[in-house]
Amino acid sequence: MRVDYREVGKLPSTDAITVLLLGVLILSAIRGAFLGTRRTAAGLGTMFGRLLLRVLSILAALLLAGWVSPYVRDWADRAVLSMPTGELPQWRTAGYAVLGFVSDFSLLRIGLLFLLIYPICLAILALLGRWRSSADGQPMKKKGKRRKGSAFLDRIGGAGLGLAAGAWRGLLLLALIFVIASIWPDSPLTRHAEKSPVYRYTAQNVFEPAAGELLNKKLPVLTASAAAEWDGILRQKYDVIDRNIPADIGQAAAKIAGTGGEIDRAKELYGWVGTRIQYDYDKVSDYENKGIWHEQTPRDTYDTRRGVCIDYARLYALMARSVGLQVRVVTGLGADGRGGYGPHAWNEVYIPAEERWIELDPTWAAGGDWFDRKDFADTHIKQNVL
Question: What's the pTM value of the predicted model, to 2 decimals?
Answer without folding.
Answer: 0.48
